[in-house]
Specification:
Blueprint lengths: L10 E4 L8 H10 L7 E8 H5 L1 H7 L7 H9 L3 E7 L3 H14 L4 E6 L4 H4 L11 H14 L4 E6 L7 H10 L5 E4 L13 H14 L5 E4 L5 H10 L4 E4 L2 H4 L13 H19 L9 H7 L6 H8 L5 H11 L1
Parallel strand pairs: 1-2, 1-8, 2-3, 3-4, 4-5, 5-6, 6-7, 7-8
Amino acid sequence: MSFWNSIDRPIIALAPMEDVTDTVLRELLLDVADPSAIHVVMTEFVSTDGLVHPKARKRVIHRLRVTDEERKLLEEKNVKIVAQIWGNTPEHYQTVIKEIADEMEFDGIDINMGCPVPKVVRRGSCSGMIGNPALAKEIIQACKEASDLPVSVKTRIGLKTVQTEEWISHVLETEPAALTIHGRTQKQMSDGLADWSEIAKAVTLRDERGLNLPILGNGDVQSLEEARNKCKRFSLDGAMIGRGIFNNPWLFMEEQRERTKEEKLEMLWKHTELFDRVWQGSKNFHILRRYYSIYSKGFNGAAELRANLMRTESIDDVKTLLNRIT
């Protein structure tokens, strides 16, 4: 039985996000999370084409990195970690999955059939798969045959228009271990509200076929309470949370309250120090700026600190700023 079927409902998962859900951020979120509040985390999505070509591999393999510290937290809090991959060549998927299964400690594989970035879609990958169900099914089947790891799928409700029932029926034919559906079309990108009533249609389709696989909803979830309420309202097995963490890095805690200035600055520094220690200059320091706007708000002097943080170029710059106000 897949681990997806052994998790208490509703399943709460962290969505895969490029340049966001790396091992550093996952460790930070897991460190403060309550064990009952999160069940599955996903890596950044990584190109199968990139992984099988030696030169490109060097640029993308870091997306599958899991530090020893993160591994300890995963085990301590009984959280599963899933590698998310994308591409449009079945053979490349098989090569990559065999390597992941043999050499890396992941609990599952998730196929990205949902990323809406136009240049990726034009290549027939990610959301582009919605327009090519035959290839999508071939890829899912190839992944299932490559190893014993459970293979799940994350997708959307359509390409240019909503086509939930037609598209999801194709995916269900392959019986993935789990299915996560973002309630927008590819064309919508992140615009408008996610349509969870469309996501709910997948549950009906699954039940009509007598399948035993969890279906998770994704889109616009800002809190644990909202995630659980949506699961109950739309009869879903779980919810995947993505951009909600940008509003609240403490989202995966049962007790929700406004964080103090000291707590925010402590998290800001911990994030900076961990990023510097793990990546040692191999990743652009500017990636941290998107998080600094989260930590530097809601207290006197926050706006000035935030403006100064947006000009930092190194951990030493951040340390100097923090020393001035603490």
